[in-house]
Amino acid sequence: GAGVSQSPRYKVAKRGQDVALRCDPISGHVSLFWYQQALGQGPEFLTYFQNEAQLDKSGLPSDRFFAERPEGSVSTLKIQRTQQEDSAVYLCASSQGRSGDTFGSGTRLTVV
Amino acid sequence: GESVGLHLPTLSVQEGDNSIINCAYSNSASDYFIWYKQESGKGPQFIIDIRSNMDKRQGQRVTVLLNKTVKHLSLQIAATQPGDSAVYFCAETLEGDDKIIFGKGTRLHILP
């Protein structure tokens, strides 16, 4: 596609509910990143894939967070048993190599 | 859409004047630097990048300056326009790593 597409655009979850956030990267982009952006802050790294391999998951805040990219294209970020502190914008980015990544518009998650 | 950077430092510039946004980084191992622009409700948008073996790079209406001695990065925007209103983030990557580390943002406000 023309850009990185994320869905849903907005998600409201009750505390304790599981959520799944989807990212469609730019076609052919090898690298895919997930970031979390709290209100008033810069994005913070969560995890990184190169094709289907998850090379770095050091930024995932707890074992409730899980990401996958089984076929090396679409990626899903799953959050189990959501908590209020998980409320944030979740950004996905893709790139061909070591250059400025292209970001999607994000999914705004609100946990109530 | 949601607001980004409600409590960020703000730089107010008269339309038509030049803007200079500054950023300090702390890691000497950083070898690649990027400036992003983020408008409300959108993901960060790549503006310009610079590698650590350079001290200046110019784009269309934008210039990035890198001073490795004092670990300082700046973004200069010439002839600032209303469309330049956004939050600007500097970002860095460490040598041998691909994830992007974002700095604190600066909100650029254009005065008519």
Q: CA-to-CA gap between the ends of chain A?
A: 33 Å
> Spans of chain B of 5+ residues with little confidence (pLDDT < 50)?
1-6
Q: What is the count of helical runs of chain A? A: 0
Low-confidence stretches of chain A: none
Please state the overall shape of chain A, judged from the principal axes of the Cα atoms: globular
Largest sheet of chain A: 7 strands, mixed
- Mean pLDDT score of chain B: 91
Helix content range of chain A: under 10%
Helix percent band of chain B = under 10%
Largest beta-sheet characterization of chain B: 6 strands, mixed
Global shape of chain B: globular
Rg of chain B, alpha carbons: 14 Å
Topology, number of strands of chain A: 11
Q: Which structural class matches the secondary elements of chain A?
A: mainly beta
Total number of helices of chain B: 0
Plain-language structure description:
- The complex is a heterodimer of chains A (112) and B (112).
- With 112 residues, chain A is mainly β.
- In chain A, 0% of the residues lie in helices and 49% in strands.
- The termini of chain A are far apart.
- Chain B has 112 residues and is an all-beta fold.
- Helices cover 0% and strands 53% of the residues of chain B.
- Classes of the chains: A mainly beta (112), B mainly beta (112).
- The A-B interface holds A 4, 31, 33, 35, 37, 39-45, 48, 55-56, 59, 89, 91, 93, 98-106, 108 and B 2-8, 32, 34, 36, 41-46, 49, 89, 91, 93, 98-105.
SSE inventory with pairings:
The complex is a heterodimer of chains A (112) and B (112).
Chain A: E1 5-7, E2 10-13, E3 19-24, E4 31-37, E5 44-50, E6 53-56, E7 65-68, E8 75-79, E9 88-95, E10 102-103, E11 107-111
Parallel strand pairs in A: 2-11
Antiparallel strand pairs in A: 1-3, 3-8, 4-5, 4-9, 5-6, 7-8, 9-10, 9-11
Chain B: E1 10-14, E2 19-24, E3 30-38, E4 45-51, E5 56-58, E6 62-67, E7 72-77, E8 86-94, E9 101-102, E10 106-111
Parallel strand pairs in B: 1-10
Antiparallel strand pairs in B: 2-7, 3-4, 3-8, 5-6, 6-7, 8-9, 8-10
